[in-house]
Each structure stands twice: as C-alpha cells, then as structure tokens.
Design brief:
Structural class: alpha+beta
Distance between the termini: 49 Å
Shape: globular
Strand content: 25-35%
Number of domains: 1
Helix content: 25-40%
Oligomer: single chain
Radius of gyration: 16 Å
Number of strands: 7
Largest sheet: 5 strands, antiparallel
CATH class: Alpha Beta
C-alpha cells in the first residue's frame, strides 16, 4: 500500500513538471491534433517560446533519448534540436538509420510555427517512420488545427 501511494505521488510530481501548452491554446486539443498527425509511442514534440519549452508531447524517456543527428557523427536530444530550431524560413529536417543493424529509423524536424513567434522540434524513431519533411508538414497542419500560429 505504501509503495502504491509513493508511486502515485511520484507520478503526480513528474506530471506537474511537464509543460502545458502555449498561451491561449487548449492542451487537450493540441495533444489530440499532434496524436492524429504523427502520434506513435516513439514520438516526441516540443514547442518553445523564447528558449523555454511551453509544450511537450511524449514522455520524458522518449523526449530525452540521444539519437543520431543524421548529419554525420554524433547524437542529440530533442531539446538540443529545439535550441537551434530555425526561427524563420523552412523547417530543418533529417532522417537516417538509427541503429547499427539498419533496422530502425530516426526522423527529425524543427522550425518556426507559422503565424507565431514559437518554434517546434519533433523526433520519431522506430521500424517504420516517415521522413522528417513529412513530419514537419503534418505538424504544420496539426498546429493550425489546434489553434497554434496561423489558422
């Protein structure tokens, strides 16, 4: 019984630390829109405003993974990508094999959210993952559907 209470308190504490949604945006609607666009157990989406994360779709475990950058050597987390997300122009996208066997794929996308000062970063990793450019395109529609940025 004590263990169950401790787990409940820990879960409540961790969820309280998770960012909500950008100002004026319904988090449940944004979660649903992102889920319909690219929802997958291996997906994480972050939205940033002035260097601060204001929204997260995905768990701490998924969002904190270090995966290949797809730009040569090295790994990155999604927070690393959000920190350098383009604030204007087209999103930055990349896709590559994520394990030595070549059986898994990682796809990255990051860029501005049209009609706002917000930026996003997204990653998907798994056996069947669309390219980063597709993820960026689907998220553009998802954000607009949820009322984030341009309508």
């Amino acid at each position: 019984m004590i263990r169950a209470v401790a787990i409940g308190v820990l879960a409540a504490t961790l969820s309280a630390c998770a960012p909500g949604a950008p100002a004026g945006v319904d988090k449940a609607k944004l979660d649903d829109s992102v889920s319909r666009a690219i929802g997958d157990p291996g997906t994480c989406v972050l939205i940033g405003d002035g260097g601060k994360v204001v929204y997260r779709y995905g768990t701490n475990v998924i969002c904190g993974r270090k995966l290949p950058t797809c730009e040569g050597q090295g790994v990155q987390t999604l927070s690393d990508l959000l920190a350098v997300a383009p604030t204007s122009g087209l999103p930055k996208t990349a896709s590559c094999r994520s394990n030595p066997e070549g059986t898994r794929i990682v796809a990255w996308a990051a860029g501005p959210i049209e009609g706002s000062s917000l930026v996003f970063a997204a990653v998907m990793e798994g056996n069947e993952v669309p390219p980063g450019v597709i993820i960026a395109d689907k998220l553009k529609t998802a954000f607009a559907r949820a009322g984030v940025g341009a309508k």
